[in-house]
Amino acid sequence: MNAAMRDKNIVLIGFMGVGKTTIGQLVSKKLGRDFIDIDHEIEKDFQMTIPEMFQQKGEAFFRQTEKEYIFQMCEHTMGNIVSLGGGAFQQEEIRKKCLEHCFVIFLDLTWENWKQRMDLLIENRPVLHNRTIEEMKQLFNERKSIYAFHHLKVETDNRSAEETADYIVEMLKLGQS
Ligand code: S3P
């Protein structure tokens, strides 16, 4: 991997529950880089979970906070593997900042496979609360169009988290040797 690439933060984007955190942690171990989960950093600093923040401070506060944390990561850190919340790329400023400063990897998954994981995800994902399955599908499709802004897309449907992480490491090494 060349020096410019080693210095870049590698950012994982994709829909809730696609495995950004699990895969990010595996990639960080394999590359010997640090891992940052933006939502986890927010939870730690504010001493509340994301659902609690939505409830007590509102979604707008969360969106502003996630933007500040992502800007801070882009402008002041290097060489990390970073997992973003699935809604971060909705904000054009975040998209622009990440695409300019980082190497952005979109973890893709088909709706059919996501639907099978849905029940495990809903409780801790306030944006899924009170939505019908049709509304969730609509959100899934809307989000797909914002994840289209990326440097590398990785299909996760037929890969385990470990296989996906291996594939990412291989692509990073291949593309940047
Ligand atoms: C959100 C995704 C969540 C979290 C918040 C909002 C979204 O992160 O940031 O609940 O709008 O898609 P994950 O993608 O890690 O679940």
Give a description of the structure.
Helix content is 59%, strand content 11%. The chain has one domain (3-174): 3-Layer(aba) Sandwich (Rossmann fold). 27% of the residues are buried. Helix 2 (20-31) packs across helix 9 (161-176), helix 3 crosses helix 5 (59-76) and helix 5 runs parallel beside helix 6. It is α/β, with parallel strands linked by helices and 177 residues long. It has a five-stranded parallel beta sheet, sandwiched between helices. The structure holds shikimate-3-phosphate. Shikimate-3-phosphate binds at residues 16, 20, 39, 50, 85-87, 125-127.
CATH architectural designation: 3-Layer(aba) Sandwich
The small-molecule ligands in this entry are: shikimate-3-phosphate
Structural class of the secondary elements? alpha/beta
Annotation, overall tally of beta strands: 5
Terminal residue distance: 5 Å
Task: Please identify which CATH superfamily we are dealing with.
Answer: P-loop containing nucleotide triphosphate hydrolases
Give the number of helices.
9
CATH fold category name: Rossmann fold
Largest sheet, order of strands side by side? Answer: 2-3-1-4-5
Specify the overall morphology: globular
Query: What is the alpha-carbon Rg in Å?
Result: 16 Å
Q: How much helix, percentage-wise, in residues? A: 55-70%
Number of domains: 1
Largest sheet composition = 5 strands, parallel
Stretches where pLDDT is under 50 for at least 5 consecutive residues are none
Mean pLDDT: 95
Element pattern in H and E: HEHEHHHEHEHHEH
Task: Quote the beta fraction.
Answer: 5-15%
